[in-house]
Amino acid sequence: MSLLSVVDQCLNSEPGGSAFAVVDGAAFPNILAILSELNCPHLCIHRGELIFEEALTAAYLIPVEPDSAVLTWFLKTWGQHCGFLMTADCNLSTLRNHFRQFLVVYDERGQPMKFRFYDPRVIRAFFNICSQQQYQLLFGPVDQFLVESVSGKQLVRFFSQLDGRQNETLTLEN
Fold first, then answer.
1. Alpha carbon distance 125, 52 (integer Å)
2. Domain residue ranges of the chain, discontinuous segments joined by +
3. Which SS3 state, helix, strand or coil, does residue 137 take?
4. Strands (E), the chain
5. pLDDT digit string, tens, across residues 78-137
6. How many CB atoms lie within 10 A of CB 136?
7. CB 155 within 8 A of CB 146
8. Which residues contact 67 (CB under 8 A, 6 or more apart)?
């Protein structure tokens, strides 16, 4: 299946949920111009007023509609470690507030560290090694995460069910 077909099928598999993208601004030197050109609502996940240089590398949360310019643009970046898609049964502001709690995490010595969960390489690795409790905590209101594979030739769908965490890998056409 094509990337668009697989994404469309996944985004429509969760009734009642809305689709969102998390975009890593560090992957786009001109992220603010891109968001302006797409004329889409978006929220910066990072807290507080950011200086211009910080805003260029921050993570942004964007609602995604089927057949939209935002989805088309996002899918063109597939395989370039630019972000991921998800569905959630909440609004943009609620989702941003949920993700903000994960921007800084603490190691076993209590030292703070930035957690770049919005990089698909990071979230994919995290989901593969985290505890069930950590998995559920990061999911929060999210129904599913759609993340590129290491090669970008597959889509990895992470979701949660009553019997625990689940994932499936869907192969994409060339």
1. 30
2. 3-171
3. helix
4. 18-24, 43-44, 59-64, 83-88, 104-106, 112-114, 142-148, 154-161, 164-171
5. 999 999 999 999 999 999 999 999 999 999 999 999 999 999 999 999 999 999 899 999
6. 13
7. yes
8. none
Query: pTM score > 0.90 for this model?
Result: yes
What are the beta bridge partners of residue 16?
none
Q: Phi first, then psi: what are they for 104, rounded to 5°? A: -125, 130
Q: Which residues of 87-115 are buried (b: 16+ CB within 10 A; e: fewer)?
A: bbebebeebbebbeebbeeeeeeeeeeeb
Mean pLDDT for 155-164 is 83
Residues 75, 44: Cα–Cα separation, whole Å? 20
Helix (H/G/I), strand (E/B), else coil: 31: helix
